[in-house]
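Predict structure. Input: Schlafen group 3-like DNA/RNA helicase domain-containing protein, 407 residues.
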Amino acid sequence: MNNQANQKLSPNHPLNTEQSELVNKIITFASDHLQRNDYPAVFTIYGEAGTGKSVVLSALFDCIQKLSHEKGTCFSNTHNYFLVNHPELLKVYKQIAGPLKELLKKNYMRPTSFINQMDKKDSSADVVVIDEAHLLLSQPDHYNNFYHNNQLTEIIKRAKIIVLVFDEYQVLRMKSFWTTERLQKITHQYAHKDYHLHHQFRMTAPDSLLNWFNDFTHGYLKPLNKNMWQNYDFRVFTDAEEMRQAIVHRNKEVGLARILSTSGYPSTLDGGKHYIKEGNFKIPWDQYNYTSTPWAEIPNTINEVGSIYTCQGFDLNYAGIIIGPPISQIPHTNQLKVNLDKITDIEMFKKRTDITNPQEKIKYEEKMVMNSLNVLFKRGIKGTYLYAHDPLLRQNLKHLFIEANNK
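Output follows.
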């Protein structure tokens, strides 16, 4: 299947110099520890959305699997796995594995499946690569048949070399609650190396607009400048239906243009349709995707609204983003606030016994709401369109946009 996600995550996707050197660094790290029988050893790649983390992992795993079929290397006959706790992304990796002889679909798994399979076979892995490690469960979750306390801890028990990518700004649920400190409390118990990716590859927007998005998700509505969207299609709408029509037009032109939204609208996994309504705009949430094709690449999803659960990890050409009821502006300030009582995603705030301070819990919950918006903000390669539910925020966004264009 020749789609955009497959092309980007294909091991044949060209790497830049830094990415190639990083793959070589990890291969050297893994081979050193395998040869010395010095394991478990953990290599962590840090990077925000769009910095090419998954591209590096895909190329790395392909390289390791090729080496596992060669004689005379420390990777010969090794048993290696690629894990991702994201069903839509897992579909893409399995599609990629199909035509490439060194890659087998069975080596791509959800973390719980890997843990259970290793236990069933009374076996362990040599190298485990983990994409989107910020989605690993950090408490038991019976819904996902995970009965241990922490998926990363359990994976490390069952592997020699662990390579993972992590972004604290993509932590979205309490059951997969992580901070960099919590991650390193586990990874730094072992032989380890950390690496930071900084360059944004996904979006063609200037750094100044990316910084504006980051300021927004840190709670501040900063002034706009039209230089922020040179060669990038950034727009603000006061009518959600108008924004939808613009996205439909872009989709007809170049494809992969979709409407996305934060929480704050009716949403239940009951098989029925639940609508997001904003004035004349009335479109249902994304439906559960039973196909092997990622949500954004199914043509009729232009008539649905995507969530963080269907778009995280994926590129869109254009993203039309609805900033829902949980995020509003504080009157007479440039500050934003999170309205936790307006969250409709029941999965977001599952109870944790290890966070007992109520203020600390609220702080983390508010951060996760802004993280979810950060995920949406970082989807659009060619353009990002915004609409805000909160009247004051909607009015001021438009005012800043008009003001910037008139300068």
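The longest strand covers residues 380-388.
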